[in-house]
Design brief:
With 251 residues, the chain is an alpha/beta fold. It has helices spanning 13-16, 21-24, 30-44, 63-66, 80-90, 126-139, 153-159, 211-220, and strands at residues 51-55, 72-77, 96-98, 110-115, 140-151, 163-168, 171-179, 185-194, 197-207, 223-229, 243-250. The chain folds into 2 domains: 16-151 and 210-250, 3-Layer(aba) Sandwich (Rossmann fold), CATH 3.40.50.150; 155-206, N-terminal domain of TfIIb (Single Sheet). The protein has a 7-stranded mixed beta sheet, with helices on both faces.
Length: 251
């Protein structure tokens, strides 16, 4: 059983994104990724010759669609298991790199950086999260553009499901969620069982930002914000919408 608020390791991301991860998030479908990618492509005005980085590409749900619109797409992720899944589905035509977003090995190399599905804010040290923004801007060419899809803090606080139980491809999944008392982070602890036996116990934790906090962080890192949306239908950011989607460019 899950403790009320089990401790989440500060390095939770090192062990969470394994081969079970796509099963836990199977509701994040290829079809949804295609619609999200199309929206981002339209907002960013992607060109065929743009060099594109899918930062935290995971198992390749979005990069497969990006590659249909750009001839120069690269995926980067920390998880070797998710990169292996991406390689299996994408083949060898798209470069996939294992890397840490705190230490991006690029300087003014990309025209566009995409970052989907709250693949940011992992680190408990805010300086490290800020460093990721600096790294993204450094990896962009002058006037390069970016697209970030992040969680909306106000919506998360108002709509958190403290505990859920579900099945996914034969696994029993028990999840407990909570927000830190100061409102700074949202956490999730998950126990995965199969046939009555515990298979894995994992944790997730990301920083929560208000619209103003996120904007200030991006601008401090050298970004110019051109638009912000609350979902993939161009709604404005509000407590009624779950996302905080940012479209912008390097200052």
């Amino acid at each position: 059983m899950l403790a009320n608020k089990p401790k989440i390791s500060s390095n939770w991301f090192q062990n969470t994104f394994d081969s079970l991860y796509p099963i836990l998030y199977a509701h994040r479908t290829i079809e949804a990724a295609e619609a999200e990618t199309l929206f981002s492509i339209q907002q960013i005005r992607l060109q065929r010759d743009d060099r594109v980085l899918d930062l935290c590409c995971g198992g390749g749900r979005h990069i497969a669609h990006l590659a249909k619109e750009s001839e120069h797409v690269v995926g980067l992720d920390y998880s070797p298991q998710l990169l292996a899944i991406a390689r299996e589905s994408l083949g060898t035509g798209i470069p996939l790199i294992r890397g840490d977003m705190r230490y991006l090995p690029f300087h003014e190399h990309f025209d566009v950086i995409m970052n989907y599905f709250t693949s940011f804010g992992y680190f408990q040290d805010q300086h490290e999260n800020q460093q990721v923004v600096h790294n993204m801007m450094d990896a962009l060419k002058p006037d390069g553009r970016f697209f970030i899809d992040y969680m909306n803090k106000e919506w998360a606080i108002n709509n958190i499901e403290n505990e859920t139980h579900r099945t996914a491809e034969g696994f029993e999944v028990h999840e407990r969620r909570w927000i830190e008392s100061n409102g700074s982070r949202i956490n999730k602890a998950t126990i995965i069982n199969r046939g009555g036996d515990e298979i894995k116990h994992i944790g997730e934790s990301v920083q929560l930002y208000t619209e103003d906090e996120f904007s200030q962080m991006l601008e401090k890192g050298g970004a110019v914000i051109d638009a912000m949306f609350g979902d993939y239908s161009e709604a404005g950011v509000s407590p009624d919408h779950s996302r905080m989607i940012v479209v912008g460019r390097k200052a």
